[in-house]
Amino acid sequence: MMAIQLLIDNYHSLGSLATDDQADPCLPEPYSWVNCSSGDTPRVTALNLHHSGALYNGDLYDFSALDALEIIDLSDNILGQEFPDFLADFPKLKVLNLANNFFTGTVPTSLRKKSKEGTLNLTLTGEGMNELCFSDKDVCPTTKGTKTSPGIDEETSTNSGSLVSLSSSYDFMTLKKLVPKSFKFGSLVSLSSPNDCMSVINNI
Description:
Elements: H1 2-10, E1 34-36, E2 44-48, E3 71-73, E4 95-97, E5 104-107, H2 109-117, E6 121-123, E7 131-134, E8 146-147, E9 156-157, H3 172-178, H4 194-203
Parallel strand pairs: 2-3, 3-4, 4-6, 5-7
Antiparallel strand pairs: 1-2, 8-9
């Protein structure tokens, strides 16, 4: 469980969420922010640090040694810097929620692939996450006057305002609020479904 201890050592606020004098995060009782498998040798299967305030600006330390993780929820914290590639390395991962942090840079395309296949619930929404793109290169491919978004394969014009990064299910209500009322949707009458969202994206 050295990876858990690494997190505690580098994010001291996590220490207050751990159980005093308990070296193993799963035994005898799991820490409040982890889930563990059953059995004689339990393994950490979930990190639940949503809105904990324990994770603050800076690099996210590599905890890929926790290879039994199925759920990683780090949403609503203050994490920043480059998107950590190791988050694409968990073979059993089913949920990855990083919403409302401040990551930038490239997101491995393997995460988008799993999201499209329905094997991963991926959430990258939030105003502080709009400098991300899906790419296996070191930097996002951009041209003058455009930017990319994790939810979109093609470049998206910045003329449409601040477009948030869309998750696999699309952040429909947020998109509806952000599209200017003056925007001309062509044959689109109103925003009433996720399919309409895609029509907006294709026309912006």
